[in-house]
Structures are given as C-alpha cells and as structure tokens.
Amino acid sequence: QVQLVESGGGLVQAGGSLKLSCVASGRTLGSYTMGWFRQAPGKEREFVARISWSGGNTLYADPVKERFTISRDNAKNTMYLQMNTLKPEDTAVYYCAARRSSSRDYVYWGQGTQVTVSS
Length: 119
Description:
This protein is mainly β and about 120 residues long. The protein is about 0% helix and about 55% strand. A hairpin with a 6-residue loop joins strand 5 and strand 6 (about 60). The N and C termini lie far apart (about 40 Å).
C-alpha cells in the first residue's frame, strides 16, 4: 500500500509563492509517473502538472505554464510543486497522485492540501 501526503499549502497574497511537497511511503515510486491535480470549490478536479519517473519529462496545464514548476527527488520519495506568481484563481485543494508509467490511470492519491490566494 502506498500513502501520499501533501504539505506546504496555506494562505498567500496574489503574486506570492508557495512550494508544495508530496511524500510517498509504503514503497518507492521511482518507476511511477507522478502528478499534481487541484479542485476548486464547485468545480471538477483538474490536472495541473505531471513528471516522469526520471524527472526528465514534464507536462503542465496551460493556466500554470511559466508559473509552476514540478520536480521530484526519488532518493527522498518526494515530489514538489513550486508555485510562483500565484493568482486568486489558483485557489483550490491540491492533490498529488501517482500512476505506473505504463498506465494512464492514477491509482494513488493524497488527501490534499489547501492553497488560498487572496486578491
């Protein structure tokens, strides 16, 4: 069984920065693709970014391109999301997730961390 635990959320003013972390336990996720998703109140969960097992391949949703950076440290079983130039519309619960690199379905999910950006 794999547990994913996010941290680093909080309240920040527009234009500010936050760095989220996602620590995995239960097994190493070196061969897993990992991703960040978010869900704002009243909206469906949406994809934010993902990173390949090696860290060499990343993909971002258009709203966060050039502002967010995803990274991972497999030695620490940890993934990160550096969020800069935050906007009120980035307010959401952010979730980390993991899937086998050969699969399209994310099978492991964290409990989420709240990010609130004030205007």
